[in-house]
Write a structure and sequence with these properties.
Helix 13 (307-316) packs across helix 14 and helix 19 packs antiparallel against helix 21 (454-480). The protein has helices at 51-57, 60-65, 71-84, 89-113, 117-124, 127-159, 167-179, 184-209, 213-221, 230-243, 246-255, 266-302, 307-316, 336-347, 349-382, 388-409, 412-416, 419-429, 431-441, 444-447, 454-480, 485-512; strands spanning 16-18, 25-27. The longest helix has 37 residues, at 266-302. It has a two-stranded antiparallel ribbon. The protein is an all-alpha fold. 68% of the residues lie in helices and 1% in strands. The protein is globular. This is Solute carrier family 11 member 2. Belongs to the NRAMP family. It holds the Pfam family Nramp.
Length: 540
């Protein structure tokens, strides 16, 4: 540990940084992602649009969009189709649009300040709230990691025709891929390749099943849900909770720092914000189409089917997984494991294997972005100054340990059942990303001319309030289904502490939004930002 903290790990060329949160100059941490920065072509700034510049800014948005395609999202999609048909596609569309607006705030914070969200939290929150906030975000990352490993394990199990894959091997596979290093553009291209695999895999299922296109469009653009009950309502809430993920806000605010932007030039900053928004829109449009493929496949083929129908079909085709479906007339319940099985029973082995390949690509791409999220969050909140290897080892060990325990002690069928719990866990952490991002992007002292205007402050506040309320409903529904007095009491005590901390964050957020009368003792101060790549005055 002493070696890790030794001053010699720094390059002599590293600039010092003055942090408003602590006195004296500090050294900027060694970067995990920005060892090179992508240059931006010097086109005429008066041009409204340049494809060359859009290509230069392309990358961070697609890495961010992978969180919209992780195994948890895929499972939410297929359950939406199987339980509600095409009726909830408009919810998916709305959640994706809300996600785009939130990602816009994250990207603007990184572009304008030169700091990502965890670094800004480090400089503006007191020590105790900052540590609590870091722990909450780490919980969200651990939950996401578990879903990614579960998805990879299920995909390998399907590809190996039910043979048990060594759990440690699954974890090793996902972690080795996450720790791989390469050039920045090559790395972004690899993520693009994985997204392409998902698009082709789930696109094949879409073409093979051939859903009714009229019903797809109707479900997407007509906000209705005729004949829906509590099951469909809970599924709609689950769709929103699966799409908007807390750690992704932190990730995107960091990824945009990978482009060489002169932040002293307002025109360049404005241009960067514009191209990042365009790129994010394209990336989330692609992810939305892939999600639609999954929803439509299960809506067309399996909505309204019973266990008996599926069991008979699997027996006729000689499937090795027919015992998964009891011989009764209850409505079919599917997850990403059973989903692959029923596709194989009804549409042939090719459908099963291609589904598994898509799930494997989703798990591997998500675990790599989760690796970066964990590093950015820990480095930002704790201001670590360790060597690259030491930081990667620590940040990923925190997430890999509980994941390894789950993989060792649970079989595949039980693993896939954990996704509901993990979605609830991440839903609870959502306020700890959304409230800070609205707080800091509304500060004129931090964002200067790029601070949120009145419309964004009110609209953003309402959107965050709605999203958090939806996710809290999802949590309440899950807890009430546990049917345990002990768990009810524990949940109540936990809720008191949880809501107290959320109220504290909301209080600071309202002060940042201009409700200064809430700052009774004048104790809340937001000092102006110091850009990460800006040389301080005392530096020769």
């Amino acid at each position: 540990i002493k070696i890790m903290f030794h001053e010699d790990i720094y390059s002599s060329q590293e600039p010092e940084l003055y942090s408003p949160a602590s006195p004296g100059p500090q050294r900027e941490p060694i970067s995990t992602y920005f060892e090179e920065k992508v240059p931006i072509p010097e086109d005429d700034l008066t041009k409204l649009f340049s494809f060359r510049k859009l290509w230069a800014f392309t990358g961070p948005g697609f890495l961010m969009s992978i969180a919209y395609l992780d195994p948890g999202n895929i499972e939410s999609d297929l359950q939406s189709g199987a339980r509600a048909g095409f009726k909830l596609l408009w919810v998916l569309l709305g959640a994706t649009i809300i996600g785009l607006l939130l990602q816009r705030l994250a990207a603007r914070l990184g572009v304008v300040t030169g700091m990502h969200l965890a670094e800004v939290c480090n400089r503006h929150y007191p020590t105790v709230p900052r540590i609590i906030l870091w722990l909450m975000v780490e919980l969200a990352i651990i939950g996401s990691d578990m879903q990614e490993v579960i998805g990879s394990a299920i995909a390998l199990n399907l590809l190996s025709v039910g043979r048990r894959i060594a759990p440690a091997g699954v974890v090793a596979l996902t972690r080795v891929s996450g720790l791989s290093s390469s050039g920045l553009r090559k790395l972004e291209a690899f993520f693009g390749f994985l997204i392409t695999i998902m698009a082709l895999s789930f696109g094949y299922e879409y073409v093979r099943v051939a859903p009714n296109q009229g019903e797809v469009l109707k479900g997407m653009f007509v906000p209705y849900c005729s004949g829906c009950g509590p099951t469909q309502l809970e599924q709609a809430v689950g769709v929103v909770g699966a799409v908007i993920m807390p750690h992704n806000i932190y990730l995107h605010s960091a990824l945009v720092k990978s482009r060489d932007i002169n932040r002293e030039n307002k025109k360049e900053v404005k241009e960067a914000n514009k191209y990042y928004f365009i790129e994010s829109s394209i990336a989330l449009f692609v992810s939305f189409l892939i999600n639609v493929f999954v929803v439509a496949v299960f809506a067309e083929a399996f909505y309204g089917r019973t266990n008996m129908e599926v069991s008979l079909q699997c027996n006729e085709t000689g499937s090795a997984h027919s015992e998964l479906f009891p011989a009764n007339n209850e409505t079919l319940e599917v997850d990403i494991y059973k989903g692959g099985v029923v596709l194989g029973c009804f549409f042939g082995p090719a459908a099963l294997y291609i589904w598994a390949i898509g799930i494997l690509a989703a798990g591997q791409s998500s675990t790599m972005t989760g690796t970066y999220s964990g590093q950015f969050v820990m480095e930002g909140f704790l201001n670590l100054r360790w060597s690259r290897f030491a930081r990667v080892l620590l940040t990923r060990s925190i997430a890999i340990f509980p994941t390894l325990l789950v993989a060792v002690f649970q079989d595949v069928q039980h693993l896939t059942g954990m996704n509901d719990f993990l979605n609830v866990l991440q839903s609870m952490q959502l306020p700890f990303a959304l409230i800070p991002i609205l707080t800091f992007t509304s500060l004129t002292s931090l964002m200067n001319d790029f601070a949120n205007g009145l419309v964004w402050k009110i609209g953003g506040g309402l959107v965050i309030l709605v999203v958090c309320a939806i996710n809290m409903y999802f949590v309440v529904v899950y807890v009430t289904a546990l049917n345990s007095i002990v768990l009810y009491v524990f949940s109540a005590l936990l809720s008191i502490a949880y809501l107290s901390f959320v109220s504290y964050l909301v209080w600071r957020c309202l002060i940042a939004l201009g409700v200064s009368r809430l700052d009774f003792r004048g104790s809340v101060q937001y000092p102006p930002a110091v850009l990460m790549d800006e040389q301080p005055e005392f530096d020769s």
